[in-house]
Amino acid sequence: MESNQTKPGLLCNPEASQRTLYPYVTGTSVVALKYKDGILMAADMGGSYGSTLRYKSVERMKPIGKHSLLGASGEISDFQELLCYLDELSLYDNMWDDGNSLGPKEVHNYLTRVMYNRRNKFNPLWNSLVLGGVKKGQKYLGMASMIGVNFEDNHVATGFGNHLARPILRDEWHENLTFEEGVKLLEKCMRVLLYRDRSAVNKLQISKITEEGVTISQPYSLKTFWGFSAFENPTLGAEGSW
Known about the structure:
By secondary structure, the protein is of the alpha+beta class.
């Protein structure tokens, strides 16, 4: 019987037994959109140990090569495993030294194949991934689920963001968004998620990727309001008999 404990070796050592039988430390939603000059992506920095908000400084967005930006929700250790795979892919790509490099579409296709392959082995990576990038003036934004389901769109979200952020994006997104408008729209989505998602924390980062490269902001908090007038007058606006 195969042991579930990790054997000594490198993170990507194929001889090691590394199986996530159940997600333990997880991150919540990632929200991303296209704007006029590139891609904007937002994620908070919470890491939940079960239902406990255990970690408050988990970075879940990473640059991949020269042209791509990856964000992930779900199991943090599986995200680290994926980053190891992508490091090996980038190293192999650079070894050709042919003046070309992998674009966001190629990286996204690779990730969907990895997720689908692991799903078929009944050993999935417990993540939902968002991959955005810009290469030769072409903006690209797509997502991939833990079972390999994938698509491209002008705006994407994972986790609770699919239910709470996408309706906002459908109403307010347009293709000529400026950087400031895009950041404001993402902050609106993240504020709604903070209010409604118990796994969200008020410490987030927003990343952008353009032809010039990737920029990830320093962590910051959103202004929030937790007042509720009904506490002062619970019958205010009520109709009918009690």
